[in-house]
Records
---
Amino acid sequence: MLEARGLTAGYGGGRIIVDGVDIDARAGEVVTIIGQNGAGKSTLLKGIFNMVPVRRGSVSLDGAEVFDQRPDRLLAGGLAYIPQNHSIFPKLTVAENLRMGGFLLRDQRLLVERIGEVEAMFPILVERRDEYAAGLSGGEQRMLEIARTLLMAPKVIMLDEPSIGLAPRLVDQVFQTVRTLAEQGKAMLMVEQNVKKALAASDRGYVLELGQVKLHDRADRLLADDRTAQLYMGARPGGTAPSAEAPEGRP
Ligand SMILES: Nc1ncnc2c1ncn2[C@@H]1O[C@H](COP(=O)(O)OP(=O)(O)OP(=O)(O)O)[C@@H](O)[C@H]1O
Ligand SMILES: [Mg+2]
């Protein structure tokens, strides 16, 4: 469904951050990218979504090359991206935020229908419909971001650290939502620092190091792999690797 080949991305000044990455996400699966801070995980998603100034390679969606398409065309074509920095409009209501997700939809009837579908999936958005989005908890705001994305009926959803800053119970809820969307046939590609829980909720995973894919395997195998544990689960000898549960220095 989503295929990136030889994806190379950077920000100018000649420094390449993502270096020749091959990555896939198929319908019905959750795929997680892990790697240390600065490994290039966010840049990889931005590279796929045509949001970095320097990029090479190819990106295809359902077999059609989309590398040169602008982000709004990608979104209209079924590829959605939820960035690492929270993107809720705090001074708009929950309902207004939700509607923003449908700004590319010309058909108002379709928009209303999709809002109904999404609200049925996330009842909290109905209960809090007329409140400012700023009043939602962190977890609820993430749900709103996901819900808003669903208005475009994407086939592939890329999420950059959906669990960041959330209490453990809410982390589970977010990953459960991600799984449910995969079961509905979407391809879910996420970047995560919450390594254990993310891999437990995933079908496959990629380990990114210095902008390159170092390991790529089924999620259960990655979870059991000493190399993953050493690097990303706090077991690195002689180092202070980020803990999988509460990454250090993260908000
Ligand atoms: N807008 C930018 N301009 C220039 N360099 C950038 C920009 N954004 C990121 N970088 C650099 O790219 C490298 C990779 O950053 P990136 O955000 O992709 O890492 P990451 O793996 O997502 O890290 P984190 O886990 O902290 O989110 C870093 O060295 C960073 O300084
Ligand atoms: Mg990042």
---
Amino acid sequence: MDLHSNAAQYASGTILGLTVLLGGCHDRVSFNNPNSSGEIGILLDGVVNGTTENDKSYITTADGHIDVGDVTAGSHNEIIAFQTKRPAALVESVAWTTSDNSVTVPFAGEMGTKFYAWILQTPYSDMYTRAIAACIKLDQIWSNERSGLYIRIFNVTDSTSDPDRSTFLDFTCSEATSLRNNIGYNSDGINIYYVDRVDFGSGFSTGNGVWCGNNTIVMGSTTSDHLAAHEAGHAFQLGHVNALTTNFDRTNVMHNASNTREFLTEGQNFRAQLEPDSVINTTYNLRSGLTTRDCGNLTETATDECPAVQKRIWADGTFPAN
Ligand SMILES: [Zn+2]
């Protein structure tokens, strides 16, 4: 340790030192199994410096922990943590006391998901390219937006010679069971079928995609990569945010009509992980034994148990941390 860095550390610790002098204590949050790079953000419930807080946000300092001030027990006491390549981590019932508390948040490893693409529409090579682009886009959004997920398997099947394919080239979800039975289906992942046109209630279009439930996404032949990310969001129990115009615009992955989807909030990542009906907890069963929470996918008001859907520790484009 050289003197220069000691001096810098001492100078930046002035406010903390003052807190101690005033008779408070300081509490620290550390992390097990963090990703080797990138900030960690937390949402904290408890009484901080005398004020009851719900989802008070903090970001790690360069040395990888967070000094959270003087935290004592309130009616609800917990920490939710987020980092790139780590699923949301929840520590419930934190025993905040009037003494110095040191809380360790354990991160699980990045969670691998499986997808099965089925190409019905021709030419195969064009649809294959479209499916791969969708795979890359979804993986990129999950990484950038700290969802803690990656695509472990993306299997593509050429169904362009299947004798049943033509029945499904104009598709509505009423045909989903028949599609799965006749073309193919794997129950341990999300299945994405590339057809020509999709109608989800307002007419057929090659630019439409749809989530039919039961691990089934169906995409039209000119659909964007980020629309596939949107439909996958439904599998994680995320709802449309387009009516929530104060806190969202077309840049959010879950806007229903957009050419610019890229962001997910921490409120959305929390739901994708903890909602009991998310594919994480059903199809993939990646959080066996861990707490689930039924937050309601569009709740703009925070509760003790769930951050608001628009909660952001980091800015999403023009929407700042909130
Ligand atoms: Zn949608």
---
Amino acid sequence: MTLNNISLNLLENGLDFIIRGLDELYVYDSEERFIIPVSQPQKDYKYGIIHLFAGFLLLLKEKLSRDTPKLIYRDFPKKSERLNQHLNQGIRPSTVDLHEALKRLKLLDNVESRVNFTESDMSVIEKIQDYRNTFEHYKIENIKILELENVIISFIDLIDRFLNEHLEINITSLDLSSEIRVKILSIKIIYDRIVKDSENAIKVRGKEKIKEFKKVRKSVLRKLYEENKIYFNDTNEDYDIFDTCPKCHEETLIFEGEFAGVCTNKKCYEYTPLTKCDKCGIMTQGYDWEETWCKSCDDNQTQMIEDNIDGDDLALYDFS
Ligand SMILES: [Zn+2]
Ligand SMILES: [Zn+2]
């Protein structure tokens, strides 16, 4: 038994418990084409909480061991001699409990590694510990489901933040089965965080694109007009090379090719994310992770609904 092995097991084991906990708490919907975020857990609270709590404690120990591996042991540093003896003899020494782990994380030698949970985070941790003890040791009575659900959600949020901020782990980039991935992505608080992260990443990429575009504006525009002319000569059809920019409302948004999403209006230069219409496949404004229909598909659908309503109305008066 080496210290390295132990610390590797802490992280893997901790993540395994967290994922198992989330798996217990959420249902899987294979029918939905798009992930619909849900704001509350839907099933086994008891096993969900027991697993999440166990996983969280292991993650705290992982953080401690990244600073100083022996910090996970209760006997360190005060009874180091006894601890070393145990380790040498292959006896598994006792590790710190939640209270001690939290205390040690606040006092790590490396100031930047220190973990200070806010008062409201601490209250969530205590409540979860309380539920977990109730589930494990007593009869489950008088538990208010709504309150329980809210505490679970806050705890999942806390774990997600802890993984990101203190262990540099994004739970959604782990190697997960597709079923569990869908479950995790459907948790609203995680879904919202991922959407925010993705939007920010797209914004950064957009800014770079605009910067690149400014350098080659003239030649890109000339090329686009040339392509348009050729298309028109071949087909005698109008071909929209630009879309309406949502910021300046001019027909200046490139929606194909290398600079797709760039507004060519010098007064605007805004970047707009583009994705494929989920109905017909042409480029349209929106994000990949949302169901997006282009304007013409959307208009067609609205027209169809209106026609149907008219049809129904007429049918009411059809006595033949
Ligand atoms: Zn614009
Ligand atoms: Zn479409």
